[in-house]
């Protein structure tokens, strides 16, 4: 658990479409199971949920659905997941072929009746981070932060994002998605006495 917490603090969001596409390309070309890993990535960056909650999805939760509701493991609160974006629905259909409704979508190679462990995905992103210099700070938790950053940049709705993330204040949410320093830097552009 300690290693994961360290990763969370060191993780950074992907701030550009180019960075997101680079990660997608690396997943496709540099990982053992590109469809599985790309689907996890796309669910994460399009919904902002924790990796642990993605890995607990079962076939009955997702197959043929545009959305599903989960109970977040950390907060115990309900959260709606959108599955009809970024080819997620089609990719899930491919992943669920030959599986029973009660099976996990993202199964372990060692024990196909169990989900992949969260640490496996953390290792995957750590390896991808080392593949390209501009991806420094990429961790599995970056998926959640990327969602937050991109959502905020598009909507400027920090209150909605704060509620989605169950944060105690807007300042915490902005710091979490890496906006605080960026906005300070932007406000100082052209400032000269």
Task: Give me a quick take on this structure.
The chain is mainly alpha-helical and 193 residues long.
Q: The CATH topology, please? A: hpI Integrase, Chain A
- Count of domain modules: 1
* CATH second-level architecture: Orthogonal Bundle
Global morphology: globular
Structural class: mainly alpha
* SSE series: HHHHHEEHHHHHH
The tally of beta strands, per DSSP, is 2
**What order do the strands of the largest sheet run in, or round the barrel if closed?**
1-2
What percent strand? 5-15%
Q: Please tally the helical runs, counting DSSP H or I stretches of 4 or more residues.
A: 11
Unreliable stretches (pLDDT < 50, length at least 5) are 1-7
- Any idea what the radius of gyration is? 17 Å
CATH C-level class: Mainly Alpha
The CATH superfamily is identified as Intergrase catalytic core
Q: Roughly how much helix do the residues carry, as a percent range?
A: 55-70%
Rounded to the nearest angstrom, the distance between the terminal CA atoms is: 49 Å
Overall pLDDT level = 91
Described by strand count, sense and barrel closure, the largest sheet is:
2 strands, antiparallel
């Amino acid at each position: 658990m300690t290693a994961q917490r360290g990763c969370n603090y060191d993780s950074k969001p992907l701030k550009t479409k180019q960075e997101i596409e680079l990660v997608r390309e690396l997943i496709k070309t540099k990982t053992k199971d590109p469809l599985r890993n790309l689907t996890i990535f796309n669910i994460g960056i399009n919904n902002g949920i924790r990796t642990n909650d993605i890995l607990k999805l079962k076939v009955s939760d997702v197959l043929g659905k545009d959305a599903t509701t989960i109970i977040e493991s950390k907060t115990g609160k309900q959260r709606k997941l959108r599955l009809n974006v970024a080819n997620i629905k089609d990719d899930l259909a491919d992943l669920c072929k030959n599986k029973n409704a009660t099976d996990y979508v993202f199964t372990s190679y060692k024990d196909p009746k169990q989900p992949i462990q969260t640490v496996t995905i953390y290792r995957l992103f750590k390896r991808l981070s080392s593949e390209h210099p501009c991806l420094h700070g990429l961790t599995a938790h970056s998926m959640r932060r990327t969602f937050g950053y991109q959502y905020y940049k598009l909507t400027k709705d920090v209150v909605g994002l704060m509620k989605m993330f169950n944060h105690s204040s807007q300042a915490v949410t902005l710091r979490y998605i890496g906006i605080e320093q960026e906005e300070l830097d932007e406000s100082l552009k052209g400032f000269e006495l």
